[in-house]
Design goal:
Blueprint: E1 5-8, E2 11-18, E3 23-29, E4 34-38, E5 43-50, E6 52-57, E7 60-65, E8 69-72, E9 78-82, E10 86-93, H1 117-123, H2 131-137, H3 155-175, H4 178-192, H5 203-214, H6 218-236
Antiparallel strand pairs: 1-2, 2-3, 3-10, 4-9, 5-8, 5-10, 6-7, 6-9
């Protein structure tokens, strides 16, 4: 195990195991930290120990939380945004030779400046952390935050996301598998971005509350339910 190395503002790493063909690295990211788009020849698998992050891999968005994982194939561009203080395990094959030094692991690291929470909101959905993450980082009773509304949006895409979330929720009801509810939440998160422009999308808050209730997160269930009731009342007036 090596000492911690500051890769860039809000991001540090340490090598846990350095093998001939594999390397296991622990990385911590502060809330609001962004690892800019980069790529490397190494295949990478990331497992989220604690937190809530967005991975953009080859143009595809992966919203991950505690217990989730994501795969980056060799030479595929990827970027990471942390919504809350997060800890991850990265597995690289072959090992990262550049990590065996004490310097930053990305060639762009020296050019990176601190990223504010406001800039993160402009890049991705800003949702409350999971129950486990709240306990770990001492955050209690979070509330859903207002989301950045994108001016140009294809209404059909949003309707499709909402329908996909509902379908996944029904699959979860039938199968009893919480995985479907977690996948549904990802779609509802995107829909909620546009709730400010279209009152119909406010229903996504209620759907999010239902999903969190089914996976046993009472705090987020109550938070999203309260937000739903609040927005419904605003529409009624």
């Amino acid at each position: 195990m090596t000492d911690w190395v500051q890769m860039m503002p809000g991001v540090k790493r340490r090598i846990l195991v350095d093998g001939d063909q594999l390397m296991l690295v622990q990385v911590t990211l502060d809330a609001g930290a962004v690892v800019p788009t980069h790529q490397h020849v190494h295949e990478q698998i990331t497992y989220v120990l604690e937190g809530h992050l967005d991975f953009k891999v080859g143009g595809e968005l992966h919203v991950v939380r505690t217990g989730d994982s994501v795969h980056m194939a060799s030479n595929v561009p990827h970027q990471v945004t942390a919504h809350v203080n997060s800890r991850v395990l990265d597995v690289f094959s072959p090992p990262r030779e550049d990590f065996r030094t004490t310097g930053p692991g990305l060639t762009t690291a020296n050019a990176i400046t601190a990223t504010t929470t406001a800039s993160v909101e402009a890049q991705a959905v800003n949702n409350p952390p999971t129950t486990t993450a709240r306990h770990w980082y001492g955050l209690d009773q979070p509330k859903p935050q207002p989301l950045k509304v994108v001016a140009s949006v294809d209404a059909q895409v949003i309707r499709d996301d909402y329908k996909e979330g509902l379908w996944l929720g029904k699959k979860g009801d039938v199968s009893g598998n919480p995985m479907y509810f977690r996948e549904a939440i990802v779609f509802f998160e995107r829909v909620i971005q546009y709730a400010g422009e279209d009152p119909a999308y406010v229903e996504a808050y209620n759907a999010m509350a239902a999903c969190y209730r089914r996976i046993g997160d009472r705090v987020l269930y109550e938070a999203y339910k309260a937000e739903y009731e609040k927005r419904r009342a605003e529409i009624a007036t």
